[in-house]
């Protein structure tokens, strides 16, 4: 997977390296994400920016921690050959203030929480969801937990 990372409104840190580690681990946990043709754009930005995106694209007038905008259906992703030009998988945006507040509330580092949200966003881009049913949510949470364990990050759901 190729990454296009833009960092705005986040404190200095190793965000690019963290994103690359999360993408590799996600590809190990969800093989569809391991396709070398895939391109993902990831924006580390402010609550204000994510609030605007959430309002415009999802009709929700509030900030949120992470937004994912998939550009391929899961079936298209599954059928994507490994050879060929780059294929845009989608965009992810992380809101700093919300992420920082949630990390503090959970008693984890901002880096660990950001890694979780990056993995969460990548899984959404791969067609996973947690909205339709409890079974979907449990499956996605288990996959996130396994991927984060590969990164040495504790279970974010506390199980």
From TrEMBL:
Keywords: Cytoplasm, Endonuclease, Hydrolase, Metal-binding, Nuclease, Ribosome biogenesis, rRNA processing, Zinc
Cofactor binding summary note: Binds 1 zinc ion.
Classification via SUPFAM superfamilies: Metalloproteases ('zincins'), catalytic domain
Subcellular localization, as worded in the UniProt entry: Cytoplasm
InterPro entries: MetalPrtase_cat_dom_sf_prd, YbeY, YbeY_CS
Positions that bind Zn(2+): 120, 124, 130
Keyword hit for rRNA processing: yes
Membrane-spanning residues: none
Primary subcellular site in the record, as a coarse category: cytoplasm
Class of this enzyme: hydrolase
EC assignment: 3.1.-.-
Pfam families in UniProt: YbeY (PF02130)
Single GO MF descriptor: RNA endonuclease activity
Record's keyword annotation contains Ion transport: no
Cofactor(s) listed: Zn(2+)
GO CC terms: cytoplasm
Coiled coil: none
UniProt GO BP: rRNA processing
Entry function: Single strand-specific metallo-endoribonuclease involved in late-stage 70S ribosome quality control and in maturation of the 3' terminus of the 16S rRNA.
NCBIfam families per UniProt: rRNA maturation RNase YbeY
UniProt record similarity statement: Belongs to the endoribonuclease YbeY family.
Name recorded for this polypeptide: Endoribonuclease YbeY
Naturally occurring in which organism (per UniProt): Erythrobacter dokdonensis DSW-74
